[in-house]
């Protein structure tokens, strides 16, 4: 098993950073009957789901970890049969309604409603293995964890509004996503928002060191810091990179001069950035379009592409240009969020960069004379 | 009336001439002779007016003769050969028509005094002959199907019946050949004419040369021509590529001038217009049309300049002629013609009078030019009417005339519907076949002997008939008329009636069943049945018997089998599946669309009755544009007539007018172009608009925005796919010029940005709120992209527009997303990230990790334990993870050494893999507990799933591709298993070999 999963903390107390959040969750777990709907958000790799799992464990005890895969099939009004996978325990259900794509609305309307409307039977047998009183009370409520709610369509989110209120007696929702702005305001207002910020560099370095110690790895602080920075303060990524670096190095020594491992798609994007910087022309833009398509097809989200690409482009730019390029990147990221054909917006951004960059080059050229 | 008589008299001459078509084809020899002689005649004639006229005629003749040579040389030569005998006399007669002049008349004319006598003597007989002639002409012309029709039609076309009869021209007009001749004279004649009067015209050959050598013009303006259709009667054929004008435009030009354009050179062809090279680059002299032209002695006009020159020549002549006849205002013209007994003739034969412009006849041109004709033409003119009933006593004609006086609000299609089978346009043999069938029906089927037979043999006889063909060509009319004429009562069922089994039984059962005997006594009785008692059932629109008409078709067939009454079925599409069962029981009569010239005859005639003037070319164009649908043509005509009345204008329906109007009618034409052409239109932006008027710019803008709607879901995608290509082509102009290049790159961005706007708009439309009111905005944004791509001067898309890549990419993206989801599902227990995290961070590391283990020396166990921990199956690793690779350097599992893979597979298959996800997917121990899922398969199914479970599970997936993929995987898996076994076998054998 990869280290990132192997060393994942499973209880609230074992969490190594964001102590205040942990405390608050702890207190919520004390009174499960008054648990509000929760909305976890924050950048990926900051520990949202780890905290959710830990919270569930704190509320329901070990039975929350008796997981089972489940699936539901339902038929949409148009006659399509849609299947949705979920992970269940006796006390909670975890699913990603966004998996149903355009039919996510029906997941909310059918499946979720059905789950929420049924009450857990409070069997004394079930309570036997739980000694605490709180588990007793908790057994009455059911928790539904919805992952990637930012992928939900507007209609699905609207369908969620009423469900959340209507079945609050039996069911608590925990929503989880990266970007809270994708969630409509009415939903956000119904939840207790818990922002899980990315861990700081030092926190990441701390975790990395802890893992390295457990794995008998000698990790230089400099390299750990490099990893933390390079990972964009994404702890998961930092851990994965650590493992990748270890595989690359082949030994148990990771010195400061160790090469940072990078992923295939990141390399691909830097290549693309280079292409754009080398030549500004429609034919180059067409080549860029091909590469962008390739990235999209490989399931790299457009915003990620844009972010990474902008980072690559900016790194070699004069300060005076950075602002402008960033502005346009933000503009087109907004566009991506508004539209569904990402390639159109990415292409427009590349075109804009070409124009800006060419202007910059020409000005420099002119100044030389 | 006198005048008419005169005309009539003259015509007769003309008609006679025509009659003897052979004579009409006066030999060159004759003509030449006439020319020579004519000059002297003229000189002598100076004394009397009439004589003068005669002279004129004579002159005309002379002139004509050259022309004849010119345009009709071939024909003439042939014809001449037959009638060379009477060369001298012709000159005089020719006036009637160059071709027409029969020996006798000519003789008369040639002598100074005789002309008058000639006229007188001819008058009575001529009329009759004329009529005959006309008929002949008509039949020559086009009406293959119907002789009577032809008679009626031909005259009407040109003009009202009365005028026809009186005018020699009319007859000539009807026959293309004649027309051609009549017209042709002018063109040649015009240059020579002046000279000709004083002295005999130069030899034909010279004139030809002059014409061909000298006349070159850069253009010919149709609008400025004051003589309508002055090239009527000529026939043009085009070949090769004209330098500065599109062939279609050139064709339109001559058509506007009244000439005919055909595709093949024949003996009727007047001119072959040739570009210097053919479409394939060979010189025009190598073309088959040119060779044919040589063979047929057709004049060749080389290049459009000469064509324009030719037009000018004809025009000049026409004007001159017109000038003479009606240089004075119209009234004077009238006056002139009456005073001059010959005038009418002149109209035909005399270049001046006739102005031959139109060649003809009177009838046609007449309307505009000839006061007489006009009157005759308008239905309001009592004259015309009276004459029509008198002169053309053909029954159909009078019928039509009476009909036309009916309710003014009636649809023309109804008002002018045929009232007799003879009047039906086209499909004559089918009509007569139907008549025969109906006539023999009682004898054949309605006797006791026939009752027991079944009638569905392939060769007939059939108890029912099936008329099939496109709409508007008279199928129903045919059925109705045939039945009526056979004296039968009609019972018609069409799509407006319920025709289910029950309804048919109720409505028809009595009629077709045993009771029918009451109405239609069997022929066997030998009694003559009163015609009224016979019946006939028409089942119209049988292919329209739809879902509502349950088992109606079956019932119909049963009914046909039993029927004692003939049933005529009518349908549009006999290939239709619905018709299949009916076909064997019916006599198959397939109706075709009447050809356009047949229709044009009728159109001109009907229009004449309605007081409209329609050029023949225009009539053909209408017929063509309506797809030879007679009914639609009538509706169009009525609409136009209405419009005319509305705005008070009285101009006739000309070919040019049609063309002009087409531009406005074609407003939606852009919607008929292909998707790719539409995209191209948008992409090329302002192409060709440099310096254009604001209106042209606006029109172009509208056209481009309209183009978007050819297929609004695709056009935008095509534009996005191709706009960079347009821009690429312009780069060479700007590169190395910093300012320009900067502006150029800004344009690139502008184009891309407006595409981005477009995508946002489209998203609003397609998803979420379905805000379709944004569609026009999408259109404009797509056009804006094209504008930016093209720049101020418009762009050029160098190749055919590429189809959009977006659809394909989006689909493969969807596929990979699904694979990713599956992986995520399998790994869901162990990893905390979502699918994106899985893709971006886990997969690269996981792959690297596995490869490092592989490298370590195929430690299959290590990998397998890793896979089991994460719940991955063998396929997950070898196929799904492999899908997510970017760049060529990234290693793939499928590229591993096959031995290694085989070893791994064997190892993997040894153990059991109990990850929940895998167990659920692949089926596990039957006792495994499953809860909560309605969709869970019961244990019995699970075994089946092992074989084709994947397909089973995914079969309801929306995306076919996924299914396909699954299947492929399935097969691959099997294949690989096989391969693995083979590999294993090889391995063992290899080992043995080593040992």
Automatic annotation (TrEMBL), chain A:
Coiled-coil intervals: none
UniProt GO BP: DNA repair; DNA strand elongation involved in DNA replication
GO cellular component: DNA replication factor C complex; nucleus
A Pfam family the protein falls into: RCF1-5-like_lid
Subcellular location as annotated: Nucleus
Molecular function GO terms recorded: DNA binding; DNA clamp loader activity
InterPro entries named in the record: DNA_pol3_clamp-load_cplx_C (IPR008921), DNA_Rep/Repair_Clamp_Loader (IPR050238), P-loop_NTPase (IPR027417)
UniProt keyword list: DNA replication, Nucleus
PANTHER family: REPLICATION FACTOR C / DNA POLYMERASE III GAMMA-TAU SUBUNIT (PTHR11669), REPLICATION FACTOR C SUBUNIT 3 (PTHR11669:SF1)
Family as reported in the entry's similarity comment: Belongs to the activator 1 small subunits family.
Protein's recorded name: AAA+ ATPase domain-containing protein
Automatic annotation (TrEMBL), chain B:
Record field: compositional bias (Basic residues): 178-197, 971-995
Pfam assignment, any one: AAA_lid_RFC1
Stretch list, region Disordered: 1-205, 321-343, 374-428, 908-995
GO-annotated molecular function: ATP binding; ATP hydrolysis activity; DNA binding; DNA clamp loader activity
Compositional bias (Polar residues): 399-409
Originating species: Cylindrotheca closterium
Keyword line: ATP-binding, DNA replication, Nucleotide-binding, Nucleus
Biased composition (Low complexity): 8-27, 162-177, 387-398
Protein family per UniProt: Belongs to the activator 1 large subunit family.
PANTHER family tied to this protein: CHROMOSOME TRANSMISSION FIDELITY FACTOR 18 (PTHR23389), REPLICATION FACTOR C SUBUNIT 1 (PTHR23389:SF6)
Compositional bias ranges of the Basic and acidic residues kind: 52-75, 123-132, 413-428
GO biological process: DNA repair; DNA replication
Main subcellular location of this protein, as a coarse class: nucleus
UniProt-annotated location(s): Nucleus
Lineage: Eukaryota, Sar, Stramenopiles, Ochrophyta, Bacillariophyta
Bias (Acidic residues) ranges: 133-151, 941-962
Protein name as annotated: Replication factor C subunit 1
Stretches assigned to the BRCT domain: 226-301
GO cellular component: DNA replication factor C complex; nucleus
């Amino acid at each position: 098993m990869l280290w990132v999963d192997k060393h994942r903390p499973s209880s609230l107390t074992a969490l190594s950073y964001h102590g205040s959040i942990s405390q608050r969750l702890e207190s919520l777990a004390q009174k499960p009957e008054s648990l509000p709907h929760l909305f976890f958000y924050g950048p990926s790799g900051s520990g949202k789901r780890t905290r959710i799992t830990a919270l569930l464990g704190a509320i329901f005890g070990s039975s929350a970890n008796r997981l089972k895969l489940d699936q539901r099939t339902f038929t949409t009004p148009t006659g399509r049969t849609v299947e949705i996978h979920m992970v269940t325990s006796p006390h909670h259900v975890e699913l990603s309604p966004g998996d149903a794509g355009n039919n996510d609305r029906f997941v909310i309307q059918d499946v979720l409603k059905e789950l929420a409307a049924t009450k857990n039977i409070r069997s004394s047998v079930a309570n036997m293995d739980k000694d605490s009183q709180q588990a007793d009370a908790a057994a009455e409520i059911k928790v539904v964890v919805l992952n990637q709610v930012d992928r939900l369509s507007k209609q699905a989110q609207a369908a969620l509004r009423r469900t959340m209120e209507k079945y609050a007696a039996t069911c608590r929702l925990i929503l989880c996503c990266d970007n809270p702005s994708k969630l409509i305001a009415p939903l956000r207002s119904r939840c207790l928002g818990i922002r899980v910020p990315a861990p700081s560099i030092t926190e990441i370095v701390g975790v990395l060191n802890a893992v390295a110690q457990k794995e008998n790895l000698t990790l230089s602080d400099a390299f750990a810091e490099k990893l933390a920075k390079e990972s964009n303060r994404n702890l998961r990524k930092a851990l994965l990179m650590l493992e990748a670096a270890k595989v690359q190095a082949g030994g148990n020594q990771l010195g400061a001069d160790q090469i940072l491992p990078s992923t295939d798609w990141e390399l691909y994007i830097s290549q693309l950035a280079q292409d754009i910087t080398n030549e500004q022309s429609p034919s180059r833009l067409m080549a860029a379009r091909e590469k962008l398509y390739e990235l999209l097809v490989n399931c790299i989200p457009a915003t990620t592409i844009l972010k990474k690409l902008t980072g690559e482009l900016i790194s070699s730019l004069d300060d005076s240009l950075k602002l402008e390029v960033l502005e346009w990147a933000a503009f087109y990221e907004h566009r991506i969020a508004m539209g569904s054909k990402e390639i159109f917006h990415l292409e427009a951004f590349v075109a804009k960069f070409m124009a800006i960059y060419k202007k910059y080059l020409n000005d420099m050229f002119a100044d030389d004379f | 009336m006198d005048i008419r008589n005169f005309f009539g008299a003259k015509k007769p001459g003309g008609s006679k001439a025509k009659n003897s078509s052979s004579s009409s084809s006066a030999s060159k020899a004759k003509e030449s002779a006439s020319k020579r002689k004519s000059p002297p005649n003229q000189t002598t004639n100076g004394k009397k007016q009439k004589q003068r006229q005669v002279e004129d005629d004579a002159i005309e003749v002379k002139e004509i003769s050259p022309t004849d040579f010119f345009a009709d040389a071939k024909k003439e030569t042939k014809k001449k050969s037959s009638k060379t005998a009477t060369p001298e006399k012709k000159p005089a007669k020719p006036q009637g028509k160059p071709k027409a002049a029969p020996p006798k008349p000519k003789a008369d004319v040639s002598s100074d005094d005789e002309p008058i006598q000639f006229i007188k003597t001819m008058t009575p007989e001529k009329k009759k002959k004329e009529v005959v002639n006309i008929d002949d002409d008509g039949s020559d012309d086009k009406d293959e199907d119907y002789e009577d029709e032809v008679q009626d039609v031909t005259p009407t076309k040109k003009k009202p019946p009365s005028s026809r009869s009186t005018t020699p021209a009319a007859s000539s007009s009807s026959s293309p050949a004649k027309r051609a001749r009549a017209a042709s004279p002018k063109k040649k004649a015009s240059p020579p004419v002046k000279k000709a009067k004083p002295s005999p015209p130069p030899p034909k050959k010279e004139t030809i040369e002059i014409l061909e050598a000298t006349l070159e013009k850069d253009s010919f303006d149709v609008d400025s021509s004051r003589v309508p259709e002055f090239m009527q009667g000529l026939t043009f054929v085009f070949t090769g590529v004209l330098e500065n004008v599109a062939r279609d435009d050139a064709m339109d030009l001559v058509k506007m001038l009244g000439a005919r354009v055909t595709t093949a050179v024949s003996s009727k062809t007047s001119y072959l217009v040739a570009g210097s090279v053919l479409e394939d680059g060979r010189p025009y002299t190598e073309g088959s049309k040119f060779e044919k032209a040589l063979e047929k002695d057709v004049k060749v006009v080389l290049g459009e300049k000469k064509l324009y020159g030719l037009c000018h020549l004809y025009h000049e002549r026409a004007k001159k002629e017109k000038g003479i006849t009606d240089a004075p205002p119209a009234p004077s013209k009238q006056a002139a013609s009456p005073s001059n007994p010959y005038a009418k003739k002149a109209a035909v034969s005399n270049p001046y009078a006739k102005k031959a412009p139109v060649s003809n006849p009177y009838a046609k041109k007449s309307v505009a030019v000839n006061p007489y004709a006009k009157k005759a033409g308008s239905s309001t003119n009592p004259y015309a009417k009276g004459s029509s009933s008198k002169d053309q006593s053909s029954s159909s004609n009078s019928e039509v005339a009476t009909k036309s006086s009916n309710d003014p609000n009636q649809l023309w299609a109804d008002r002018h519907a045929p009232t007799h089978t003879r009047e039906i346009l086209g499909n004559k043999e089918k009509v007569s076949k139907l008549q025969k069938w109906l006539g023999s029906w009682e004898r054949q089927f309605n006797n006791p002997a026939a009752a027991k037979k079944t009638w569905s043999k392939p060769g007939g006889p059939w108890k029912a008939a099936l008329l099939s063909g496109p709409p508007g060509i008279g199928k129903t009319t045919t059925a109705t008329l045939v039945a009526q004429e056979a004296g039968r009562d009609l019972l018609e069922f069409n799509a407006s009636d319920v025709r289910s089994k029950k309804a048919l039984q109720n409505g028809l059962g009595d009629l077709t069943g045993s009771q029918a005997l009451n109405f239609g006594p069997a022929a066997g009785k030998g009694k003559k049945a009163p015609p009224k008692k016979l019946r006939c059932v028409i089942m119209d629109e049988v292919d329209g018997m739809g879902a509502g008409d349950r088992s109606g078709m079956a019932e119909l067939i049963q009914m046909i089998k039993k029927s004692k009454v003939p049933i005529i079925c009518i349908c549009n599409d006999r290939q239709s599946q619905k018709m299949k069962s009916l076909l064997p029981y019916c006599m198959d009569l397939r109706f075709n669309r009447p050809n356009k010239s047949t229709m044009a005859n009728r159109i001109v005639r009907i229009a004449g009755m309605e007081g409209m003037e329609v050029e023949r070319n225009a009539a053909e164009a209408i017929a063509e544009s309506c797809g030879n649908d007679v009914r639609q043509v009538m509706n169009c005509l009525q609409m136009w007539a209405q419009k005319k009345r509305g705005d008070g204008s009285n101009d006739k329906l000309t070919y040019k007018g049609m063309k002009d109007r087409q531009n406005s009618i074609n407003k939606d034409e852009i919607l008929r172009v292909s998707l790719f052409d539409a995209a191209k239109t948008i992409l090329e932006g302002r192409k060709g608009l440099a310096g254009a008027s604001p209106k042209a710019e606006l029109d172009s803008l509208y056209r481009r925005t309209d183009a978007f709607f050819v297929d609004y879901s695709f056009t935008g995608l095509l534009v996005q796919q191709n706009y960079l290509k347009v821009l690429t082509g312009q780069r060479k102009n700007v590169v190395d010029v910093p300012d320009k290049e900067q502006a150029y790159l800004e344009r690139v961005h502008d184009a891309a940005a407006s595409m981005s706007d477009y995508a946002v708009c489209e998203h609003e439309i397609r998803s979420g709120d379905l805000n379709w009111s944004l569609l026009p905005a999408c259109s404009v944004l797509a056009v804006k992209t094209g504008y930016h791509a093209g720049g101020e001067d418009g762009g050029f898309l160098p190749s055919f527009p590429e189809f959009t890549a977006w659809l394909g990419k989006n689909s493969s993206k969807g596929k990979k997303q699904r694979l990713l989801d599956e992986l995520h599902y399998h790994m869901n227990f162990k990893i905390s990230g979502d699918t994106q995290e899985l893709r971006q961070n886990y997969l690269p590391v996981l792959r690297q990790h596995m490869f490092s283990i592989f490298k370590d020396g195929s430690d299959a166990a290590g990998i397998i334990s890793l896979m089991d921990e994460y719940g991955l199956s063998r396929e997950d690793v070898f196929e799904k993870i492999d899908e997510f690779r970017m760049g060529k350097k990234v290693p793939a599992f499928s590229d591993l050494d096959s031995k290694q893979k085989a070893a791994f597979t064997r190892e993997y298959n040894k153990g059991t893999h109990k990850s929940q996800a895998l167990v659920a997917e692949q089926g596990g121990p039957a006792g495994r507990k499953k809860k909560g899922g309605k969709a869970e398969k019961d244990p019995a199914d699970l075994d089946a799933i092992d074989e084709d479970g994947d397909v089973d599970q995914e079969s309801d997936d929306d995306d076919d591709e996924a299914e396909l993929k699954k299947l492929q995987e399935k097969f691959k898996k099997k294949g690989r298993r096989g391969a693995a076994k083979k590999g294993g076998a090889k391995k063992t054998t290899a080992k043995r070999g080593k040992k």
